[in-house]
Amino acid sequence: MITNSHALLWLLSCQLLLLLAKVGAKVPAIIVFGDSSVDAGNNNFIPTVARSNFQPYGRDFTGGKPTGRFSNGRIATDFISEAIGLKQTIPPYLDPAYSISDFATGVTFASAATGYDNATSDVLSVIPLWKELEYYKEYQKKLKAQVGENKSNEIIKEALYMISLGTNDFLENYYAIPGGRSSQYSIGQYQDFLVQIAGNFVKQLYELGGRKISLGGIPPMGCMPLERTTNLMQGRGCVEEYNNVASEFNVKLKNLAEKMNKELPDIQLVFSNPYNVLLQIIRKPSAYGFDVAGVACCATGMFEMGYACDSRNPYTCTNADKYVFWDSFHPTQKTNRIVADYVVKNVLSDFL
User: Fold this and answer.
1) How many other C-beta atoms lie within 10 A of the C-beta of residue 86?
2) 238 phi/psi in degrees, rounded to 5
3) Rounded Cα–Cα distance for residues 256 and 263 (Å)
4) Could you tell me if residue 314 is inside a domain?
5) 330 among known catalytic residues
6) Is 310 a catalytic residue?
7) Catalytic residue, candidates 39, 78, 327, 341
8) Where are the beta strands (DSSP E) in the chain?
9) What is the mean pLDDT of residues 144-167?
10) 17: pLDDT confidence band, cut at 50, 70 and 90?
């Protein structure tokens, strides 16, 4: 029997396929920078506790493999890659199982628990954003040696660059560390500080040849199960303060994108905002085929992620497709697919 939610997903997929068939894919590669929302396993190869390369992570991935993605399966950038006619998954740059021939059509330099702010990456000893850029410079040299200078330049110019950062800067740094950034900046000043870093990063990508760039917004972070668990005074509802901060920050990122499009010749900088679509899913989960939005699938669903979300926990749900969130911080594969479809149809179609 086809439910309304299944029919909605089917219709969205058909619309996406028709769109792609009409315009034709023009993107030869996807190159990704960011945090756990887009890390496909780079943290497996650095000394940090911010990992997910163990069960039950990846249980709905091909072969039930825990790749290091913070999900029960694929993440949004995997679905975006597939939607624009490239491979079904984007490999992590630090994984020795892959070579430059694999990376030529897509690669992620992302590191779970990192942020725009270097101080954020220091919290769990992960890869800072400046290091992700250094890896990209190394990648460019390898790509040139693999396919030649002309082909390499073409890939670099026509590739889609995706940036997904910011949530950890607020939740793992600003609000979590007394005497740190919160003692140096007001929340508005800290937003401006991060936006400045984002702008400088986009300029560096531009100077390195990137032209098609997606600057990602941050989700309604006050609705993550971890934040709701600690919001006892409001009956474990969403923390509106955090949602307001996310919304304000996204406006500033959008304004940055508009400004840089006027300043940098030939750049195509789009703002990809997951906030509204995710908030809609959280507020009306049944409309998208979900049963649960307030807690996550893994363990008790209230506070566990990473090593606290393991295969020995007896409370983990049996069907992750019924849950908006996989662990207390990260969406399920199904949620990632819906968000990816939305972004491709409403934002990234400019590049296709």
Assistant:
1) 19
2) -65, 145
3) 11
4) no
5) yes
6) no
7) 327
8) 30-34, 106-108, 160-164, 212-216, 268-272
9) 97
10) very low
